[in-house]
């Protein structure tokens, strides 16, 4: 996903430009910190105190220049208008958040308002068109059959959450003024890997295969996650 995001950034903005980045629901700050290291000015918005503590701890070990380029704000992603003015950011990330939001449209509209003209909105969502894949490949036939007709599922944390369908999100992005520019699949072949599984020796080959599949039909359509990139018109 990081490679996909970098591809979109390089293709949209001049090389060397320091971008204003907002990471909504930044978690422990993996992407936010990576982009700060790349020279961008990054703001992370997160409401989970444990995640904020983890992000601050990771940031504390960075050189001063990187620490100065990243700020962390405690808050809900649905309240971006409280913290920031419209058009304040060149790139807005919202990765792994929508599945926890029952009504995502207001959140997405708020994110689009944060974008400057030509800005990039990056979403990572659970693929509602492929919910039967994980149980089916695991031999859970009853679970696979039930998954065809729903966008609700139970995640690996044991939480009941929701998925999004590509066609619905495409329509939503068009409606909020940030139409879909590109989309990718994420975790095409590796979704059934056990949590905490040891990394293979040929990790770079695995990543290359996943990256190729994530941009190639029909493979990307059955990925566990979808990475959607919209552009503010």
Low-pLDDT stretches are none
Q: Report how far apart the termini are.
A: 23 Å
What's the rounded overall pLDDT mean? 96
Number of strands: 9
- The secondary-structure class comes to alpha/beta
The shape is globular
Number of helices: 10
- What sequence of helices (H) and strands (E) makes up the elements? HEHEHHEHEHEHHEEHEHE
Strand order of the largest sheet: 3-2-1-4-5-9-8
| Overall helicity | 25-40%
Our Rg estimate from Cα atoms comes to 18 Å
Give the percentage of residues in beta strands: 15-25%
**In this structure, how is the largest beta sheet organized?**
7 strands, mixed
Written account of the structure:
The protein is 36% helix and 24% strand. By secondary structure, it is α/β, with parallel strands linked by helices. The longest helix is centred in the first third of the chain and has 12 residues, at 49-60. The protein is globular.
A few lines on this structure:
This protein has 233 residues and is α/β, with parallel strands linked by helices. It is built from 10 helices and 9 strands.
Task: List the main descriptive attributes of the protein structure presented here.
globular, alpha/beta, 10 helices, 233 residues, SAM-dependent_MTases_sf, methyltransferase, two-stranded antiparallel sheet, EC 2.1.1.222
Write the layout of secondary structure elements.
Blueprint: H1 2-12, E1 20-24, H2 30-37, E2 41-46, H3 49-60, H4 64-68, E3 70-74, H5 80-83, E4 89-95, H6 104-114, E5 115-126, H7 133-137, H8 141-147, E6 152-154, E7 160-162, H9 166-175, E8 180-186, H10 203-213, E9 225-231
Parallel strand pairs: 1-2, 1-4, 2-3, 4-5
Antiparallel strand pairs: 5-9, 6-7, 8-9
Organism: Streptomyces cellulosae
EC number: 2.1.1.222, 2.1.1.64
Protein name: Class I SAM-dependent methyltransferase
């Amino acid at each position: 996903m990081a490679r996909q995001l970098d591809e979109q950034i390089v293709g949209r903005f001049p090389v060397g430009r320091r971008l204003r980045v907002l990471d909504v629901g930044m978690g422990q700050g993996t992407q936010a910190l990576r982009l700060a290291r790349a020279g961008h000015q990054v703001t992370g918005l997160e409401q989970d105190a444990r995640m904020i503590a983890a992000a601050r701890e990771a940031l504390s070990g960075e050189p001063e220049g990187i620490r100065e380029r990243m700020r962390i704000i405690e808050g809900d992603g649905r309240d971006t208008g409280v913290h920031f003015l419209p058009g304040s950011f060149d790139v807005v990330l919202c990765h792994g958040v929508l599945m926890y939001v029952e009504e995502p449209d207001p959140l997405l509209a708020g994110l689009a308002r944060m974008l400057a003209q030509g800005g990039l909105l990056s979403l990572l969502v659970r693929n509602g068109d492929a919910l039967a894949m994980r149980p089916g490949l695991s031999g859970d036939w009853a679970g696979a059959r039930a998954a065809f007709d729903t966008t609700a599922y139970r995640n690996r944390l044991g939480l009941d959450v929701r998925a999004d369908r590509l066609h619905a999100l495409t329509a939503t992005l068009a409606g909020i003024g940030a139409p879909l520019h590109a989309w990718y699949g994420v975790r095409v072949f590796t979704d059934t890997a056990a949590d905490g599984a040891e990394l293979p020796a040929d990790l770079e080959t695995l990543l290359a295969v996943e990256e190729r599949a994530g941009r190639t039909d029909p493979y990307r359509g059955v990925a566990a996650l979808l990475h959607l990139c919209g552009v503010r018109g």
